Amino acid sequence: MKSNAEVIVIGGGIIGNAAAYYLVKRGLSVIVLEGSDFIGNGGSSRNGGGVRQSGRDVRELPLVMYGIKNLWPTLSQELETDCEYHQDGNLRLGKNEKHKEILTKLATNAQSCGLDVRMIDAKEVKSINPYLSDEVTCASWCPTDGHANPLTTTLGYYKMARRSGVRFISGERVKELRMVKGRVRKVICESGDVFEGENILVAAGYDSRAILGTVGVDIPMTRSLLECLVTEAEPHMFDQMLGTAEADFYGHQTKHGSFVFGGSSGFEACNKDNGTPISSSKTAPCICRGIMKYFPDLADAKIVRTWAGWSDKCADGVAVVGAIDEVPGLYTSCAMSGHGFGIGPAAGHQLAQLIATGTTDVDLSTLRYDRFKAKI
Amino acid sequence: MNSVNDRSRDIGPFVPAPDDDMLICRCEEITKGEIRQAVHDGMWTITEIRRYLRAGMGLCQGQTCSRLVKGIVARELGVSPAEIEPATSRVPMRPIQMRVFANEAKED
Q1: Into how many domains does chain B fold?
Q2: Which residues in B lie closer than 8 A to residue A282 (C-beta atoms)?
Q3: I need a labelling partner for A180 at 20 to 30 A (CA). Which of A1, A198, A295, A376 fits?
Q4: Which domain holds residue A159?
């Protein structure tokens, strides 16, 4: 089996798989190396499924807006997989004046990028979602936001890329990158396997930091724990994506009927790491308390499963996407800061275009890897 | 864990079988044929089968069907079921109401 390709993608999550799919569609040969035993095992399967523009930093907005306009609406047909994409709006909920201030600021920032997002009062919130408690006094409303199924979307890209001839290898942990004649070329794995690519895309979540470090590139990021829970199937209630001003939880009702919510306990930074990113006993109950305050009707819904994992959080909370100038042939999409799912198809699509043609439809200059400056 | 698994290995074509419409995962109503087809779509681990089809992700969390799913995946891949890793079991052990789960702590 050939171990060289025009592009080696490191990381089989939504971004790596999407990039592989769009690259092979452009006629390039691709090998994807996934470090874990499972495709889509990082943040791609540990998130609430939001496909959102509202609440995002203005530097990231053009890329996610590109995806929502051009890729998400037809993704299920394209991938022959039900991605369960719903574009029924995002409510970001607030209960007091402080929340209102946070939401208003986020909404104003997004408006400056041409996004249709506005503040609405309690009455309008209720008319959009009648199940919300009376404690909710305001919300930001973005009608073009939505949600999808991160698991089937990630595996749908994998299925179609693999069907088109992309070689996927799981359980293949990358140890280092090596330069040959001034270009990044070799990928050395812990197993002893060596791959060679004319271009290398690193989209390996937090592990990207160590891999990029082997050719002298450092992107300031930390790991941040994500925890999710899912209920049994419930009768259909609503189709909006939900979040809160303080981000205490977020989620939606899936096509299946279950509710998927993500959230945090506040102890994530010092959770005990026992070798597997296992869910903590504090977090899911805490998310439940948050949900019940906003949705009293869900108090009797049964939780069937909770799960947790790591996302890669950038020092400034915004993704890094693009080519690395000092290392010809090297590209990355990492430090997605919990926004990687919604932005994933667009990131993969634009990186494929960048690798194949040297140009992008979306200006990626705000997402550069070398934008980080010390405070003095 | 972390064994190198080349997903482009040839496992032969998907051949329809007379019992393909047999329900394997009763909670989520997933058939044997759907599981077999998923293997041919690249879902070679129980974890991926679960994420892709929801088989074993319903109320019983696979406590009923996981051995059956494992056997079907192993047969389709032409390997021993012992080589197929089980999926991770998750909290809670039994489905539990949000209002009960939330009692882990009380607000002042």
Answers
A1: 1
A2: 104-105
A3: A1
A4: 4-49+151-220+316-367
Q: What is the CATH number of the domain that holds B78?
A: 1.10.10.1100
Q: Which of residues 212-241 of A touch B (CB under 8 A)?
A: 231-232
- The range of the structural domain enclosing residue B48 comes to 23-104
Give the Cα separation of A199 and A9 in Å (integer): 9
* Position B51 in a domain: yes
Q: How do the pLDDT tens digits run along chain A, 376 residues long?
A: 689 999 999 999 999 999 999 999 999 999 999 999 999 999 999 988 999 999 889 999 999 999 999 999 999 999 999 999 999 999 999 999 999 999 999 999 889 888 999 999 999 999 999 999 999 999 999 999 999 999 999 999 999 999 999 999 999 999 999 999 999 999 999 999 999 999 999 999 999 999 999 999 999 999 888 899 999 999 999 999 999 998 888 999 999 999 999 998 888 777 776 666 567 788 999 999 999 999 999 999 999 999 988 889 999 999 999 999 999 999 999 999 999 999 999 999 999 999 999 999 999 999 999 999 999 9
Q: How many domains does chain A have?
A: 1
Residue A251 domain-assigned (yes or no): no
Put simply, the answer to whether A289 touches B4 (Cβ < 8 Å) is no
- Answer whether residue A22 is part of any domain: yes
Whether residue B96 lies inside any domain: the answer is yes
From B41, B61, B102, residue closest to A305, measured CB to CB: B61
Whether residue B4 and residue A302 make contact (CB cut-off 8 A), yes or no, is no
A299 part of contact set with chain B, CB < 8 Å: yes
Binary contact (B47, A41; C-beta < 8 A): yes
Per the domain annotation, does A308 fall within a domain?
Answer: no
B7 contacts A167? CB cut-off 8 A: yes
For an interface test with B, give the residue of A155, A248, A276 to mutate (most B CBs within 10 A). A155
Instruction: Output the domain CATH number for residue A339.
Output: 3.50.50.60
**What number is the ipTM of this complex?**
0.96
